């Protein structure tokens, strides 16, 4: 497994748990040192125990020696990053190609190279070209096996996936069967659990990943726009989402309004799909719009907080609950908090923030002036306004009376709808949330 980040570490550990011997290669010295010392460099519930058990059982090892890991391997998975390229939004495949070249140089005997990273359509073919150019003598196949795990629920998502997608170059005589057999064997426990495993072509597998993520991002963006509409017409988005979701064709998941989708996947993958569509002469206009609407939404959230303050936050203290792009992760990549806190900071607010897992990852990407607090009530202390940006469960149970005792002001912007407007109203707060009637006390 080349790359020991969120995907490489979780997939590698889960394959080991399935009974396979896995060598994870990681070049980041801090991450590698942590893994070797038995520490997990990312926050992912349950991963520490699973890693420890598989290391103990001798099925899972960590190192930076690619030759040692690749030697004798039946399959080599590439799980390195594919971040957005600045400017055109295309996925940057340079880490993938660099890893593949390294693999090709040291591979011995038949080698199956599998992309777990999310890669643009055509990457598999380019990998085959690079491997052939690097090692014309090497017997190899290329497969695409995109990963659908969600951070925070990654182990369950990997062990009990809705489906596994495997793309193999179907034009290569003989290659398909050998590669298929290796991947079938690796995923054997999922056959026993009767999880669907779809075998398809390389390009199709690559596109499936972008289509899936973009559809989900579009679904969220749809409910976010309906949420705005609810506010204008006096409707309740929770009831709208629940009711449309009861139609099995729509489905109830991914219909929670939010300050905008973030994370390491949806923003970059929607941008990449629009680039793939434009380059292929077949623009995916719904996703182009999704990208634009989501960017505007994050900015609109900061403006909402400023409007709640009466149009000016200069000198005011804003308490912020939640920084990560969603709960149960420490990941700050493209979190809405980055956009919102930047606006509040530029407008002169004093920001007191708390996140249960993201305090360390947040520091480098948030404005310098942010004060990091020891818990939620500490963040609320002396706040004129309290803003909820991530729906961590521990925030749900905070009582309005306790918040009131700590805060100086009486204004709450709940941008994840974690609280009941009635209880905030009873406690005397001015309370805004998403797609539900505002509670505003007039003096
Ligand atoms: P990440 O940045 O957490 O991990 C990538 C790791 O690869 C890093 O630790 C980096 O040091 C290492 N690396 C880079 N080049 C290397 C090399 N040549 N040899 C060894 N190690 C190397 O990224 P991630 O979140 O795990 O994402 C990886 C890929 O999986 C991306 O394409 C992403 O789109 C996709 N993906 C991510 C998720 C998710 O939830 N994070 C879910 C599905 C798919
Ligand atoms: C996503 C995909 O779900 C996963 O299949 C893929 O492999 C990687 O990308 P992840 O980024 O970990 O997973 O988180 P996810 O739970 O999908 O949330 C992404 C963003 O959408 C978060 O910012 C979240 O707050 C937001 N979201 C999600 C909403 O705003 N509303 C919802 O109803 C669901």
TrEMBL record:
InterPro entries in the cross-refs: 6-PGluconate_DH-like_C_sf (IPR008927), NAD(P)-bd_dom_sf (IPR036291), UDP-Glc/GDP-Man (IPR017476), UDP-Glc/GDP-Man_DH_C (IPR014027), UDP-Glc/GDP-Man_DH_C_sf (IPR036220), UDP-Glc/GDP-Man_DH_dimer (IPR014026), UDP-Glc/GDP-Man_DH_N (IPR001732), UDPglc_DH_bac (IPR028357)
The metabolic or biological pathway listed in the UniProt record of this protein is: Nucleotide-sugar biosynthesis; UDP-alpha-D-glucuronate biosynthesis; UDP-alpha-D-glucuronate from UDP-alpha-D-glucose: step 1/1
The keyword Oxidoreductase is assigned to this record: yes
Check the record and name the Pfam families matching this protein.
Answer: UDPG_MGDP_dh, UDPG_MGDP_dh_C, UDPG_MGDP_dh_N
This enzyme catalyses: UDP-alpha-D-glucose + 2 NAD(+) + H2O = UDP-alpha-D-glucuronate + 2 NADH + 3 H(+)
Q: Which UniProt keywords apply?
A: NAD, Oxidoreductase
- For whether the record's keyword set contains Oxidoreductase, the answer is yes
Domain (UDP-glucose/GDP-mannose dehydrogenase C-terminal) spans 319-421
**Broad class of enzyme this protein falls into:** oxidoreductase
Q: What is its EC number?
A: 1.1.1.22
Checking NCBIfam families in the record gives: NDP-sugDHase
Family listed: Belongs to the UDP-glucose/GDP-mannose dehydrogenase family.
Name of the molecule in the record = UDP-glucose 6-dehydrogenase
Organism source for this protein?
Komagataeibacter melomenusus
């Amino acid at each position: 497994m080349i790359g020991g980040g969120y995907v490489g570490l979780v997939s590698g550990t889960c394959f080991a748990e399935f009974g396979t011997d896995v060598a994870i290669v990681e070049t980041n010295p801090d991450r590698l040192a942590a893994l070797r010392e038995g520490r997990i460099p990312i926050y992912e519930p349950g991963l520490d125990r699973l890693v420890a058990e598989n290391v103990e059982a001798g099925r899972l090892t960590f190192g930076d020696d690619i030759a040692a890991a690749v030697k004798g391997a039946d399959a080599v998975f590439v799980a390195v990053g594919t971040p957005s390229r600045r400017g055109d939004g295309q996925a940057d495949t340079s880490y993938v190609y660099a890893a593949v070249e390294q693999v090709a140089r040291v591979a011995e005997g038949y080698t199956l190279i599998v992309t777990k990273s999310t890669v643009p359509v055509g990457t598999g073919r380019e990998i085959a070209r690079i491997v052939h150019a690097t090692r014309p003598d090497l017997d190899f196949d290329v497969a695409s096996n995109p990963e659908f795990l969600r951070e925070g629920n990654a182990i369950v998502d990997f062990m009990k996936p809705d489906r596994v997608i495997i793309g193999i170059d179907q034009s290569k005589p003989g290659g398909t069967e050998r590669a298929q057999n290796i991947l079938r064997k690796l995923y054997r426990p999922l056959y026993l659990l009767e999880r669907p495993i779809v075998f398809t072509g390389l390009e199709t597998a690559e596109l499936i990943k972008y289509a899936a993520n973009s559809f989900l991002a579009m679904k969220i963006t749809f409910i976010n726009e309906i949420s705005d509409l609810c506010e204008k017409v006096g409707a309740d988005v929770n009831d709208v989402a629940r009711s449309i979701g009861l139609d099995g064709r729509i489905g109830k998941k991914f219909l929670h309004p939010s300050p905008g989708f973030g994370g390491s996947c949806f923003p970059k993958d929607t941008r990449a799909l629009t680039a793939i569509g434009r380059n292929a002469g077949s623009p995916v206009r719904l996703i182009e719009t999704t990208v634009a609407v989501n960017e505007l939404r994050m900015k609109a959230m900061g403006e909402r907080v400023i409007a709640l303050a009466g149009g000016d936050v200069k000198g005011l203290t804003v308490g912020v609950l939640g920084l990560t792009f969603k709960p149960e992760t420490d990941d700050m990549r493209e979190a809405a908090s980055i956009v919102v806190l930047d606006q509040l900071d530029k407008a002169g607010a004093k920001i007191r923030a708390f996140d249960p897992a993201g305090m360390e990852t947040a520091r480098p990407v948030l404005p310098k002036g942010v004060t990091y607090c020891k818990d939620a009530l500490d963040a609320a202390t002396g706040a004129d306004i309290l803003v909820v940006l991530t729906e961590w469960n521990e925030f749900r149970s905070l009582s309005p009376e306790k918040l009131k005792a700590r805060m100086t002001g009486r204004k709450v912007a709940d941008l994840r709808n974690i609280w009941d407007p009635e209880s905030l109203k009873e406690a005397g707060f001015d309370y805004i949330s998403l797609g539900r009637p505002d509670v505003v006390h007039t003096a």
